[in-house]
């Protein structure tokens, strides 16, 4: 495990929106080898909901719009997936 001081020193330079965006990108790239469009769609919906539910005081407001966009795009990706 990483020491808490190392994690804290990294996180102090960024806001929660940037950290969640990095998490979204990493989980999407991690799901690509599965070749499942449904998993990508569910991941997109999940992160959209997380972006929308995160308090506005913790991150800039444009992450709210990113969350709303992901909530709209996620179901489209999920429904258009081949079973």
Automatic annotation (TrEMBL):
Q: Where does the record place a coiled coil?
A: none
User: Where are its TM segments located?
Assistant: 12-32, 39-55, 61-81
Q: Does the keyword Transcription apply?
A: no
List residues of the DUF8006 domain: 1-82
* InterPro entries for the chain: DUF8006
List the keywords (alphabetical). Membrane, Transmembrane, Transmembrane helix
The protein's name: DUF8006 domain-containing protein
- Organism of provenance: Halohasta litchfieldiae
């Amino acid at each position: 495990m990483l020491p808490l001081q190392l994690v804290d020193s990294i996180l102090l330079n960024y806001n929660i929106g940037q950290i969640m965006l990095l998490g979204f990108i990493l989980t999407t790239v991690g799901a690509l080898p599965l070749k499942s469009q449904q998993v990508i769609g569910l991941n997109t919906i999940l992160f959209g909901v997380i972006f929308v539910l995160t308090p506005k005081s913790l991150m800039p407001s444009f992450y709210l719009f990113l969350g709303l966009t992901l909530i709209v795009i996620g179901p489209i990706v999920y429904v258009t997936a081949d079973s």
